Amino acid sequence: MAMGSLWSYISCDCICLLSSLLYGSSVSDTVDRFFGENHFSTYLSHVVIHRTSKLRSVVDKAKKLYKQVKHKKQDKKKPMRFFSRKDTPEGHYESVLQELEQDIRMGQAEVSAPGKEVRAAFVSFKSRYGAATALHMPQSINPTYWLTEPAPEPHDVHWPFFSASFMQKWLAKILVVFACLLLTILFLVPVVLVQGLTNLPALEFMFPFLTLILSMKVVSQIITGYLPSLILQTSLKVVPPIMEFLSSIQGHICHSDIQKSACNKVIWFTIWNVFFATVFSGSAFYKLSVILDPKEIPVKLAVAVPAQASFFIAYVVTTGWTDTLTELFRVVPFMVSYIKRSFEPSDDNEFVVPPMRYHRDTPRVLFFGLLGITYFFLAPLILPFILLYFCLAYIIYRNQFMNVYAPKFDTGGMFWPMIHYTMIFSLVLMQAIAIGLFALKKMELATYLLVPLPVCTLLFNEFCRKRFMPIFTAYPAEVLTKRDWEDRNDPRMPEFYNN
Amino acid sequence: MAMGSLWSYISCDCICLLSSLLYGSSVSDTVDRFFGENHFSTYLSHVVIHRTSKLRSVVDKAKKLYKQVKHKKQDKKKPMRFFSRKDTPEGHYESVLQELEQDIRMGQAEVSAPGKEVRAAFVSFKSRYGAATALHMPQSINPTYWLTEPAPEPHDVHWPFFSASFMQKWLAKILVVFACLLLTILFLVPVVLVQGLTNLPALEFMFPFLTLILSMKVVSQIITGYLPSLILQTSLKVVPPIMEFLSSIQGHICHSDIQKSACNKVIWFTIWNVFFATVFSGSAFYKLSVILDPKEIPVKLAVAVPAQASFFIAYVVTTGWTDTLTELFRVVPFMVSYIKRSFEPSDDNEFVVPPMRYHRDTPRVLFFGLLGITYFFLAPLILPFILLYFCLAYIIYRNQFMNVYAPKFDTGGMFWPMIHYTMIFSLVLMQAIAIGLFALKKMELATYLLVPLPVCTLLFNEFCRKRFMPIFTAYPAEVLTKRDWEDRNDPRMPEFYNN
């Protein structure tokens, strides 16, 4: 029986993570016995994961040394650089390399010892169907004992959490949730600052010495029109890396999952901290009181959202347009790499193609979608600006995807559900604002007639969840069997699979 | 390869429901091709379900006729009955039976025709492991096309929804949710009536002619102390059958699922309509305003809940104690069956052992648990009454389970998650009331120190959901493979399975 490729896209592997040893003494024995007995018809083999951090650090050190030696030789050819380094005699490198070789040998010896095994293994199956079976079925009576996950692509693996048990991962997840809440609350500081800047008289009252400067028309225009967006945008730049870090300690075993989780966090953070925090400008406690009083939300939104229309139009121009344009020229990465090269000389041929950072750009595009949907009937003036933004974004991101970024992993369309849910949220929010607006203008009939609209939107969402969501969570038996037939190159493959 | 028993507890069957035909012209062909190709290693056979309502009605008619003829013969021996019937000549029965025989033959001929097939089939697999695989794995690219469900026990099957498509089931579910909401709102009428009765002056004001009667001490005691509970209890009796009916049109394919779903509905209906509606006595709109203002809930609960302590103590005595005692003597079923027998004479040997009605009794017991947990620190006087109730209930239900009821289906412990969730809800409610009480008494430190308590309860619930919930949803591979080994009676069965 032919085996599917080990690291194929619909993989024949899954990763099993076990929290304690059962049968034999080693992880390898336990995995082999468990899968050999419970999935005997499809189980093929397994590879236990070893902890090689020591070995890896030694290898990294050797690589760095090699780079230094290589660079030294090149330096002799082109002597001009911004910063030159002290010379070290070549005999020194030789002795260091010998030491490293010794270290690597010792590390390899240590790794092959059974004590270094991590309680996780890559398990291979005879067919994709078999792997999917092992993936979907609960393994043991205690569901925290054996965890199976689909094996990620080889360069997509995130190693640190292979040794984490169910409890550790669960605790990490809860801690991350609390950290996100804390970050959301702390972020209100720059938002409140932004709101303070749009209110010049209050600023003059607090800092009387500024009166002279603030009375200049240009300064006041910059401060009220441009500075708030700038501060907001600068502080927002910090959020995606923080969210990515939080997602990375959450227990995911591949980078694509981390990016997905970070993207989700950044979307809700942006919606809450940019949209709601700006709309309900005021103290944090006032914002809390708004959530805790859901009956009043539509009316409060109807009062607060239209008031911020001019701010958000400015936001589309300052943040949206400039962001897409800086994305085109990649100003920040260019400057960073220029400065880095001056300080740390490296091989010029060693150019790494940057990966797309979905968790930074997807929430931004979705946020402008939210602005467009919620403001189109309150302040239609926002529409041309947003239209221009989307046109720009389409052209520029299309170019970036084709010519600049190299995909680090296949997303498999996994970001689509997030986009769907954000759209549904935007629609329901818009409908809630419309209800609030009609209630505010004492149009009772219109208010009551609008109430079924969000209910219908939510029902539509529920239908989509039932009809389309399963496609995103697992491959169906039909697809798996078709792929298995193709792998076997069997001429008896049923005809209908060729459609 | 030996096959597991067709209707065993962990079944080798699953039911597939398909919404449209794909390959061949008949359902049987489609099922055979799909499972034969996509689950070729484990698929054994299938039985397509036929619509036999016409045949069944004819068979039922024949059975009834048989009963009548039999009863007629017995009647001749014992001529005394409350109500006698007109005699019919015996020749009449003969001609009717001949007609029926003809009908049954025609019905069978119709059923074997392929046009009468329903788009559902019982699919059998070579092993339990194979059946579980087909159950867990999504089948086709369109997830609404093939639905697989575990096959219920034979006498547990609920036939009407085998022909329903995914969309029909989904719409039925949404309609049932709206029906439940409507019922909850309509049920506020008797509750408001109950609340009116506890307020005698208002009653006297509304119906002045009652003043004379109400001034008698015995009458007023009965009206304020006993009548409210009686009205509430009588109207509550109607709820379980209604909820069972609603669950039965929701698309479930077995009676045990219907009972589970009805039990869930009755639990939340009881908690909302007896506990909350009584506590927040007043108009329906006032109650709505309470949910829509979650910040104020703890404080409002802290005011309203202690005020109803005496009502709930009376409720435990009148409803709890009397209910368990009537359960012991089964007064209502006894009277119903006595009256029924007088009107419709039947064979005395034909005694059907009644099944346990979980959806009627489980919510009641859980509700007294809720009362005990929420009132133990507000009105400790309720505790001895509840303790006595639980002792009585333990003894009586133990007896009923052992000597009176015959299990209609194996619940498989599936009611446990409901009990767990209700307990967690009771705990969080109690903690919310405690927080509200401390806030009301201006003990700020105690209030803030108590806030982490419900958070911890919810975290505990989340842990239990992760750790124990999977056991209730599916059998793990370990158990399935062990059962498969046992079925095969293979001497090579691994030793560790004998533990």
UniProtKB/TrEMBL annotation, chains A, B:
The chain crosses the membrane at residues 170-193, 205-227, 266-286, 365-397, 418-439. Residues 28-160 form the CSC1/OSCA1-like cytosolic domain. GO terms for molecular function: calcium-activated cation channel activity. Keywords: Calcium, Ion channel, Ion transport, Membrane, Signal, Transmembrane, Transmembrane helix, Transport. Residues 1-28 form the signal peptide. The keyword NAD does not apply. The keyword NADP does not apply. InterPro entries: Csc1-like, CSC1/OSCA1-like_7TM, CSC1/OSCA1-like_cyt. Residues 173-438 form the CSC1/OSCA1-like 7TM region domain. GO terms for cellular component: plasma membrane. This is Calcium permeable stress-gated cation channel 1 N-terminal transmembrane domain.
